[in-house]
Amino acid sequence: DAMVIQNPRYQVTQFGKPVTLSCSQTLNHNVMYWYQQKSSQAPKLLFHYYDKDFNNEADTPDNFQSRRPNTSFCFLDIRSPGLGDAAMYLCATSRQGGSLSNEQFFGPGTRLTVL
Amino acid sequence: DAKTTQPNSMESNEEEPVHLPCNHSTISGTDYIHWYRQLPSQGPEYVIHGLTSNVNNRMASLAIAEDRKSSTLILHRATLRDAAVYYCILLNPKEYGNKLVFGAGTILRVKS
Questions:
Q1: Has residue B97 got a pLDDT over 90?
Q2: Which of B43, B91, B104 comes nearest A101 by C-beta?
Q3: Stretch 72-101 of chain B: residues touching chain A, C-beta under 8 Å
Q4: DSSP letter string over A15-84?
Q5: For B29-77, what is each residue's pLDDT tens digit?
Q6: A10 CA to centre of own chain
């Protein structure tokens, strides 16, 4: 089945130690998103790629960066994780089609713990 | 981004229909109404979306008010597996692409 895969499902890092989360998709969608979801809160969009074009949300901290080397893969890099960055990180994809509104497909998420 | 208002929580009995309301009084003519749900410990899952007309799919029905200022997600027979947070989201692909801005959502509890 076509799907969105996130690895690892659980990641533990130390305060200040860079960490990379990965997302891959078999849907061949042109748009990929990264969301942050803290405990008991709703998901919050960090940034997205429309093909190779990177779109950062205005309030996303500089500590968060992303790479998309090809259509299938997208990475979330946290340069210096703080305790406040502990959260579930969700990757999603969609097929962008002009003015049409398309559903997003989410992965299962990576739960990040910062010690 | 246009905002939506949903009840914090609702409760339903198993096998009974559930009507989840959403108010969006500032909706614009090009805003789509999307519903997603998030089961415990999972990523959000698309449920249904519509623009002006009522919509049905295998998961649910979406009833949209004639003035589009409110909508209702209808689960025809709730099961325990439907217990989740349900998010009503307005999406304007012309202005904001396909970005989802999640509100607090409605926590649906299903009793057996």
A1: no
A2: B91
A3: 85, 87, 91, 93-94, 97-101
A4: TT--EEEEEEESS--SEEEEEEE-TTS--EEEEEEETTEEEE-TT--TTEEEE-SSSSEEEEEESS--GG
A5: 889 999 999 999 899 999 999 999 999 999 999 999 999 999 999 999 9
A6: 14
